[in-house]
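Many introductory courses stop at the sequence. We go one step further.
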Amino acid sequence: MKTTSRKEQILQAAFELSRCNYSWSLSGLAAHIGVSKTALYRHFKNKDELLAAMDAIIVERLVSSIEEAEPEPKAVRISVTRLLRSENGILFRLLQNFGMRPGYEHLLFEQLAAQSPRVRALRDSIAASPNSKGLSVALVKNCVSILLAGVQLPASSCGRQTDSLAAAGADSGDTFRTNLAGYQDELISILGSGLFPLPVPSSARLDELEALCTVRTTELGPSNRLFDAIASTVHEFGMENTTIGRIADKMGRAKSSLYFYFPNKDEMLLELVKTEIDRITSLCSERICRGNTLPEQLFILLSVQSGYLLLKSDILAVFNWIRYELVRDPSRDPSRDPSRTAVHPFEKPKLNGHWRFAEWFGTVPDLEARSKAMIKWCSILATTGVLHSLANGADSAETKRTIRLMFLSMLCGDRYTGELA
């Protein structure tokens, strides 16, 4: 029987804690293992060295999953998804990196290309293509979507996982949570097939919808001094280094005065997000009826959210954190967790006569839950598209082009050649 060394035990425990809390400490890790903090220092000089070792393991496992799969996109997606579902500690560490480290997507891709012949060949083929921009966006879409498909929801006590995804919500009465595995598998299928045979809007029609979806500065709503200070602090210092003290400094107020309204930083962020999400939801609701097909409505959703984020770039870091939170628990329902009401702009989509989800799903009993899953996917991709574009130094016009490429990739799946309609 293989024995586990102390170093391996530490790494395993660190991955377990990553499922629970992105800001875990070495003291908490030592307590989790049942050793002194000093014992950790015999193997790792500090937390940064430990995190670097974890990231090296992630690259190694991803490379193995990619290289061992059959040489076609569907097999690779399934192989990586299985890895993430079986080792959710790896998934959550990945999510932390995506949510807290700007540009991590590029770093990870280069690390994978250095060790995986398949990834290296993919990188080189994209670089050589005249449609490299569209193919790069399609790759980003696939990577983020696989993260969504790889989540297993934790059981009631952090550190334990449910034996099956379907059982995760068996007692909750929540269709979305109960059927999460099915929706995740459906997403993997859509990545390959796209939304065929739904019609792809013409370039002229997308131009019309894009104009319709233009968000004006007058629609942003009144400013809020506290929320402006939160967004500015996150933008300047990053999520991990944002503290209530720094937010108070931005406002020129005592830290104690902010604790009167919010018990901690996360609650402040959630309240900020709720305010912004309410505005995005309202802007989408005003325009969604102008979509004549489900693909047109999805494009409206993508365009409105991305347009809003472009006008309020200070909140992009916060929305990147939301992307991490959403993937970490895609089943979250604010009706049962009032403290988390701000997690997502379309947590409860208004499936009135304007939405056309039945074009794709048909008249199924869980139409609302499936629609919610697709809307969450689109919303995450909207944020991803803006972040990806701005990270490459793009302006507003180029970012809109990125969103259009993302949309076409969603519709066409593996048939997408990277061209702009």
